[in-house]
Amino acid sequence: MSCSCTSSSSQESIQEEVMAKINNHPCYSEGAHQHYARIHVAVAPACNIQCNYCNRKYDCSNESRPGVTSSKLSPEEAVKKILYVGGEIQQLSVVGIAGPGDALANPEKTFKTFKMLYEKAPDLKMCLSTNGLMLPDFIDQIVKYNVDHVTVTINSVDETGEVGSRIYPWILWNHKKVFGKEAAKILLQRQLEGIKMLTDRGILVKANSVLIPGVNEHELPNVAKKLKELGVFLHNIMPLLSKPEFGTYYGLNGQESATDQEVMAAQEACGMDMKLMSHCRQCRADAVGLIGEDRGDEFTKDTFVKMDWDDLTKKYDINARAQKHQVIENWRAALEVANEKVKIAQASKEQLSSTGETKLVAVTTAGEGTINLHFGNAKEFLIYEAGDKAIKFVMHRKVENPYCKGPEDCDGSYPIEDIKNTLKDVDLLLTEKIGG
């Protein structure tokens, strides 16, 4: 006799399998991102679509956003860098190919990198990010090299192509450019097809959606519903970053960036249908370190490119890395007991508070799940929503410039107004120290 339902033991097995995949993945697990590091390697310079919010830069050190890198790498250089960084930062757990173009618009370089990593660093999780246009064509290669986390950027599910045409001027399809609504419709069809193929193969999918005020905010709840239907694991709503100096179409034409409050409203509208990622930092294509901490300047080509493979393999030292990860897990277990009221998943105000009233709390941290950062050094604040019953993480908020530790440490600039504006709706600030 057959049964269409899933047994409780099967559900538990699936849950355990998913937890094993995300436990030390700083992007897929909010609980992991203060403990484990990631590295993005810039082996994919080409792209097959044009987004109005994107302008790729290959020699850029002063912008913190997707699509920029200080230098491009060959697959061999990328793997050398990963082995070197993995020895220096033993909590490194994830490698991602996220540009500066599209991973699947550069399939030879992308999969050569993954093949070498599969052989030389089998303890690392491998990820790629894509716009999804070529995704259905590369499912087998993704599975072959154990790439079990894939991020797809999907900003609209409008089948008419009207919304998409305001975001994507053109796509490169079958060796020619396709424009406007037709381009948007082709892209959407390929995205949905590819996502379904991934989830059918047991690959965890994170969907990124850029919140573009006046363009797609009304579409994002529809996106969330469709993602749930397709079995997507996580939905990441990112604010549009739009400045003239970025050189994007939106930036040059006066399109406003999304505000923190607009992002929170979109998260609330979408959170009923999807598990949301709320700790994204919109990382560079060459990001290194903990999320919220970029150590890329420490690992320029000259630090690793001339090292031979034997020396790099010794430096990577899988056994020492495993011991470091166990220390991290022991610390996380202790924190979990201490933070039993913290809800990492989405929770309603009623679940947080017996009265339905909550407070927003800003926290400064250097990682490890503790309040261990001086206010003057904070480049961002973690925002929590707290009630008398529980607490949940909401988002992070960056500031243009940190403050300073005291008069002797200030350079004459006082960015307190920017910080005050960033925290204007916050009720409480928790920090290690303020002042000298």
Shape from CA axes? globular
How large is the share of residues in beta strands? 15-25%
Mean pLDDT: 85
CATH homologous superfamily of the largest domain, by name? Aldolase class I
Secondary structure tally: strands: 16
Order of the strands making up the biggest sheet = 10-9-8-5-4-3-1-11
Structural class: alpha/beta
For the termini, the CA-CA separation is 73 Å
Helical residue percent band = 25-40%
Radius of gyration: 22 Å
Number of helices: 13
- Classify the fold: give the CATH topology of the largest domain: TIM Barrel
Largest sheet: 8 strands, mixed
The tally of structural domains comes to 2
Q: Extract low-pLDDT stretches.
A: 1-11
CATH class of the largest domain: Alpha Beta
What is the level-2 CATH architecture name of the largest domain?
Answer: Alpha-Beta Barrel
Structure in words:
The N and C termini lie far apart (73 Å). Helix 2 runs parallel beside helix 3 and helix 2 (75-88) runs parallel beside helix 10 (309-316). Strand 8 (204-211), helix 7 and strand 9 form a beta-alpha-beta unit. The protein folds into two domains: 8-303, Aldolase class I (TIM Barrel), CATH 3.20.20; 341-430, no CATH class. It has helices at residues 8-22, 75-88, 107-120, 139-144, 162-165, 180-200, 220-230, 249-252, 260-270, 309-316, 318-338, 349-352, 416-422; strands spanning 37-40, 49-50, 92-97, 125-130, 149-153, 170-173, 176-179, 204-211, 234-239, 276-277, 288-290, 342-343, 359-363, 380-386, 391-398, 428-430. The strands form three sheets. The protein has an eight-stranded mixed β-sheet. A five-stranded mixed β-sheet has the order 12-15-14-13-16, with no helix packed on it. With 436 residues, the protein is of the alpha/beta class. It is globular.
